[in-house]
Amino acid sequence: MKKFFKIFAVLVLLLLVYLRIAIYPQLDLISGFASKSVASGHFIDNRSLETIQQGDNDIDKIDWAKNTINDSEKYVTATVYGFKERKAIYREGLGATLINDDFDVSKPYNVPKRTKLENNLPFPYGNNEPKDTVFSNINYEKLNAAVANAFDKKGEKDKRTRSVIVIYKDKIIAEKYDTGFNKNSRILGWSMTKSLTATYFGILQKQGKIDISKPAPIAEWKNDERKNITINDLLHMNSGLEWEENYSKICDATKMLFIEEDMTQSQINKPLVGKPNNTWNYSSGTTNLLSGILRKQFKTHQEYLDFWYSSLFDKIGMNSALVETDMAGNFVGSSYGWANTRDWAKFGLLYLHKGNWNGEQLFNESWADYVALPTDTSYGNYGAQFWLNVGKKFPNVPKDMYYASGYQGQMVAVFPSHDLVIVRMGLSEKFDFDGFLSEVVGSLKK
Fold this sequence. Notes:
The protein is an alpha+beta fold. It has 12 helices and 15 strands.
């Protein structure tokens, strides 16, 4: 019996050591993700705690967290079995921000000024309901079947699609939402936000206020070989800088999103491990660095905040759009953009029309070509903060399709050759995009 207890004690000790080494360091990230996700979903889109926990937070280990919402003071706390409490606060206009213990919640803060587009035009150039249009070259039976097949049948939890919209020649030809979602539901785009961030460089370039071919304005790089990295290299994820992006573990990306106060600094401090314009590496840190570079283009923080809305969202009537900020007041350009499905589609239409929105040119036509041009060493899969199908990742989908893409299968796909934009929002990386997109495109008769 004594021998049994000794063996049992050793096993318990080994288990505790394993938990301390392998699991405990992850608790910060687990409770951080959980509290931020609940705060965003609840306060931005009015989702219930149950809905968020069964949907957005239904992720391995994240579902360990216990979440508590404080509606009166607009914050959420999360713990993992009573350990590692994290807190996310909500501020109108800025969204939810995961904070640390030192964050001063009483400190005044700037909020973006918004101008809501209000006119009597139908979607997409206004916010009135679109006019019914029937195209003779569309097989609607095939189209509707493709869209219906993108959603789970009752009782299933596989495809996990939340919304789909298909726009052809500026007209909505198909639109569908899962239970609990509708045309007004704001949905997190995750890394589709990267494509938004890139667009601001195109807007500034048209205004003659920035030259992306010049070295990135980073003081820390001026005295070493990183001084040769251009804004163009950063937009292409081709800087050669060290960065690890693996959401299944503690890595550069997870530490940035769930621990760092100023997310624009995370990539700055990384050394070169390759050559600029010759070493493609996907990096959310790079996009947040770009957000920091955008901030430097303005004299005040208020101007930086306003620009993201006045130059893009408010221009094209993305009234639901919101990009959340970090503790330092920077837009988290890598990951935290929200909008309803129709507004995400407006962003796709802006690129389909090469920057022209109802007669106004927001960025040069050449910018749309630029973001869809393959980056060196990306094997035809990546442009400038947009993904491409030049390398035929989706073998049955047209090669000219390019798209904004986000975690769990968010997509705004642009098809220049077909005058088509398709948006899918959901919760599953396993979604069959090749089958879905090819079926929708196949419903258009040549």
